[in-house]
Predict the 3D structure of the following.
Amino acid sequence: MSLQKINKLKDERGFTIVELLIVIVVIGILAAITIVAFNGVQNRAKTAGYQSDANSIVKAAEAVNASEGGTYPVYAASETVAATTAKFNAGDAKLSANVLTTWVTAAPTADEAATGPTTAGSVKTYKVQACPTNGGIIVYYWNVADKVQKTVKAGTC
């Protein structure tokens, strides 16, 4: 082999194993950071959706209150989910077709709240509690990002 060929082979070297391992580790770290950040975005999006639905229920209750002369929708023990949701649709504001309500007589427990609204396909059912003396309502939803129960109120609760 001539000296020129040896020098040429010396100049044409590839990546070492150490260099390749460093690149693989850096890519792995970047992928892990991206996955964690994406999880946070998903949780905030779920919470925003729950809060939006809860606000819609409150607005519908306010519309019922305005059209019924100062009376918020009230709880009746024998009512079905569809019947309670219909009360919120009695005013000028209508709930979205994928938002239902069910009455509760007390705030949901931590275990009940942690599951968020009951879901069946794209339909979500939220827990609603009447305030004392028909002064308003409380709508419960779950903050997925902070893992706490939140409320939105209408009227004088």
In short: The longest strand covers residues 123-130. The helical segments are 3-11, 17-67, 81-88, 110-114. The longest helix spans residues 17-67.
